[in-house]
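Q: What does the predicted 3D structure of Methyltransferase domain-containing protein look like?
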Amino acid sequence: MKSFWDERYKAESYVYGEAPNAFFASSLSGLKPGKILLPAEGEGRNAVFAAKSGWEVHAFDWSEEGLKKGEKLADREKVHISYRLGAMEDVHYEPETFDALGLVFAHFPESDRRAYHQKLGNFLKPGGYLILEGFSKAHLRFSAVNPKAGGPKNEGMLFSLAEIQRDFTDFEWEVLEEVNDSLEEGSYHMGEAALIRAFGRKKKTNKKE
């Protein structure tokens, strides 16, 4: 899969566009800037938006080509992002480090998804925010008739509301919904899509004095 993403991101154009994901951008705009982590960040569109909005941005992806384009976009927009090359199992941060976590079309193998989500949730401070958008299992009916709608073709890599709730048990949700919407993100997210959107806050623990 790494070779697949390297080949896709080698294109001169930004294949998912240079503008941030709309749900991510609208959710982030209401938060006080702090320190944010963006896993599977690809070509850097969301990282650059966050940096321009005043956030200290940390991101990673296993595609070297994606990283190069993310850094190129950041240079063009005159912002700094701390972008690492690495796969989920190889990337580590201190627990409770980040004020926000953005998972935008970050789809993992079904066998690893819950462990990865819980690992990422541990990097978030109590009271920190999760912003997630990804394809739901119902998306297969859209991608079957329109390949440009994008998304994994393996149903196990797609999301359900129940799975998100099980993966992130220590969150209080302001938004947790499955919607049909039209995407216009570069060349590979075009057209009707079935989406899971989640915006929530990690519960604060009550520590004894």
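A (community wiki): The structure tokens above were generated from the sequence. The CA atoms of residues 33 and 54 lie 6 Å apart. DSSP finds seven helices and seven strands in the chain.
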